[in-house]
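Chapter review: from sequence to fold.
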Amino acid sequence: MEKSLKILRYIILAGVFLTPFLVLVVIGSLFFPFITGKNFSFRIITEIIFALWLVLIIFDKRYLPRNKDWRNLLLLSLLAFTLFVFLSAVFGVNFYRSFWSNYERMEGVLAYLHLFALFLVFISVINSEKLWKIFFNTSLGVSVIVGIYGLLQLAGKLAIHQGSTRLDATFGNASYLAVYAVFHIFIAALLFFKSKNWRPWRWFYVPIVILNSVVLYFTATRGAILGFVGGLIIAFFLNLFFNPSKKIKIISFSFLVGAVFIIIIFLALKNSSFIQNSPVLSRFSNISFTERTTESRLVIWKMSWQGFLERPIFGWGPENYNLVFNKYYQPVLWSQEAWFDRAHNVFLDKLTENGIFGLLSYLGLFVFSLYYLWPPRASLARGGFPKNSFALSESIIFTSLLAAYFFHNLFVFDNITSLIFFYAVLAYILSRSKIDDNEGKTERQYQKNNGAKTAYVFVISIAAIFVIYYVNIPAILAGNDLIKALSFSSQGQLEKSLAEFQSAISRNSLGTGEAREQLSSFASQVLVFQEADNSFKQKVFDVSVSEMKKQLDQSPTDIRYMIFLASIYNKAQRYDDSINILQKATEISPNKQQLYFELGTSYINKKDYAAAVGVLKKAFNLDQSFLEARKLYAVALIYSGNVNAADELMKDYGGTIVTDERFIFAFLTSKMYDRVIGILEKFIENDPNNYQYYVNEAVVYLNMGDRQTATEKLQKAIELNPDFKAQGEYYINEIKAGRNP
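The token string follows.
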């Protein structure tokens, strides 16, 4: 029995030590490969080791958290936070989404249940400082691999997945990599100072700190970098006040003075070419309350507060921030992304989604961590440092790390890797805060393998298999189906693409919503694809409309799905249906210009130009600095015959003769051919070798009755594109014969 349980414990530890390697997982055959690969791997590993841990504690109670552990304020706060996340889902607006989340985020209740399960395994199985060192050293080794990947991106040897300059390594997101680097800088510093007798090998941690610092810098993630700098400042402040060494105090004071001078110099030179030409430094020099990103964040945070006031106790539920964003949307946000599902502030996310108690319990994780790092009840040792189970270096480093992470969370949102390391740090603090490691522990005593325990093991095994399958396999298969659907679509294999979309949806997984979104985009393309068979178009229309209606039944106030459905109706020329759904959407989100754009377009397609003018005028008046709203309003005015008003509207914005096909169609409808020619000439100025523009001009001149000029334009098109010769000469002969080809 003892040997079997030892093997079981080693298997659990192996699973725990696998978690740092999750950052390397990228599965290209899945939708959102940088997110889903890591998350599914994390969930499966956690489910396996948690089930094995349950079996272990049945036979060996030493690995069950002690009674005293359950009175630990940090553990209680984490338990309360997990409970409030679940309750916020129950009392929120969309339990299904709150529980399962989606491919893009993969958080929700399910993620936090897994994290809490992993936390319990951490504090129960990693029960010695030696094991914690192995865990952290393993993670540092992985961070070296990640760092080298980042350096290869910096050298241009590997592609940067997000943009062209900000490193993202295996995360696909610069901010995710940045916070990962922050954690590992402080972890490396911790192990450096904890090395016994200052052995020479401790210096291996120095290049790890440097490597992660370089990676952090070139992610150009302002929140993480400022958080890291702030954490360093806090570390030196704490050393200045608590470290008994005069040498350390002098070094700390010198660093703080130096930091002040560097900040002053940076502010003085922030407009210099050196800083402005730096992709990283320029991002910091441009920080101000009038900067576009800063302004938008402040607006979004205000919207979050409004959402909290509407549902203050349990919030809207995890993963439902998008509903708050839509309901309280402010027109000034037109220059940002169209859809936000996060407040870009973790604390406001918790407040909005989980309510006041969810936020307080989350803040408790930081407060009680500091409480155990710096216990006020302890007597003071020489130098003012409280006597407890933490060394001074540990308390300072973890305080600085938590401060850096806290500041980072003010401007971005979490991901599974940052959450894993945050929970690992919490588990370490709880484990190290135990004053008496022997208190409450039972002697090694193995329970007999009687029938009841065998039954428990059987139940746990069956439950684990069910959970592993139900939580992961359908979603993994659906993600693979979705990738195949998109691949077939890009290859023009439309029938196969539709079949894969239907397969993905039929699996009824957390990815169903995203599969339906992609299906609706596919449908919008197919319905206007001239080479597609009409019967196939009808099939695609029927399937996509049916699925989007099902999605709206599940999420009746999500205007994003309403827009997808309206777009399908528009492409199928079902304008009344499109108008009906969009009018409902504007009632839910009355300030979102995009809804009025879609609605106005539907009215234009229906040839109800007066209604289009009214709708698009409203969109324009929401924020007149929005050029797109101005253009669409002008287009509607042209369709309605009020060209003078359109000219006046666009007078200071390039006029109505602009390189925009929407103006071409509007002027064609109004038979203002001279203006159409003017726009086409501008297109030709920008792209003189595009033969299609000359063909279009030929069509316009033919409508004007100028057959000679029409043939000249076709001759020019033939010169530019010899492949067009046969067709072009046919058109020319038809025109010369007095016919309109």
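Two observations follow directly from the output. Residues 389 and 433 are 6 Å apart (CA to CA). DSSP finds 32 helices and no strands in the chain.
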